[in-house]
Amino acid sequence: MNLPRSSYYYKSKEKEPEEASLVKRIEELVEEFNGYGYRRITIQLRREGIRVNHKKVLRIMRERELLCKPKHRWVKTTDSNHPYRIYPNLLPDSQATAPNQVWVADITYIRILLGFVYLAAILDFFSRKAIGYGLSRNIDTALSLKALNMALKSRNPPPGVIHHSDQGVQYAADDYVDTLTFHGFQISMSRKGNPYDNAVMESFLKTLKTEEVYLCEYQTLADVEERVPYFIEQVYNQKRLHSALNYRPPAEFENMFLTNKLHNPCLTALT
Questions:
Q1: How many CB atoms are closer than 10 A to CB 209?
Q2: Considering the entire predicted model, what is its pTM?
Q3: Residue 235 has what DSSP assignment?
Q4: Chain centre to alpha carbon of residue 262
Q5: Looking at CB atoms within 10 Å, which of 69, 120, 189, 230 has the fewest?
Q6: What crossing angle do the helices spanning 54-63 and 38-47 adopt, rounded to 10°?
Q7: Residue 28: band (very low, low, confident or very high) from pLDDT cuts 50, 70, 90
């Protein structure tokens, strides 16, 4: 055909449409899930049927400065100087193998224009699913009870569930303990000043802060009440991939377990 040999080996220097499409999808995922690193982005792409190597995803994200940069901020919200009973830590001896065996609870702050809003939340330890939460300008027992009552209504748990929290007065007060006792909970508390005793909840709060709270400039309580429940219910529970759940969202993980579609080896990652 009188073609030079070099024509056979020629490759365009322009980026292939496939990579351009991949870059666009990665940028969309980073915009939706600001706290995702390249591993979670890779898993999500594969869940969408896109075959891609994690090294390629890392390269693209690094070139476009899309890698997440975590922030570290901490404010004390636990008042453990109170006259109420302190309960032993039951988590080291617990093995959650199904939903509604262990619940974990905690409170954090959210800054608004003129002060703070406080969030109390409860997770199911097995699935990491947020099952109850409450928002208030006051950090008190009424706030923690709001989250607990929501969890009780949504789960209707059997007697014997372990309820784990810190030693804060909001969880040790009579009204809260009486509610737990009435519903047959085993009460468990972290050691004083040791956040690692409630690492699952600490991870949830970190995700909430880095992927929602730090990205918004809330002006009022109403702003927080609009955005935070949406993030918890629609993003965290339904979409966000968790490495401890074999890279599945909490709601999906629970549903797969309850329909006996999850293989037992995957469960060991939770214990």
A1: 20
A2: 0.72
A3: I
A4: 20
A5: 69
A6: 120
A7: confident
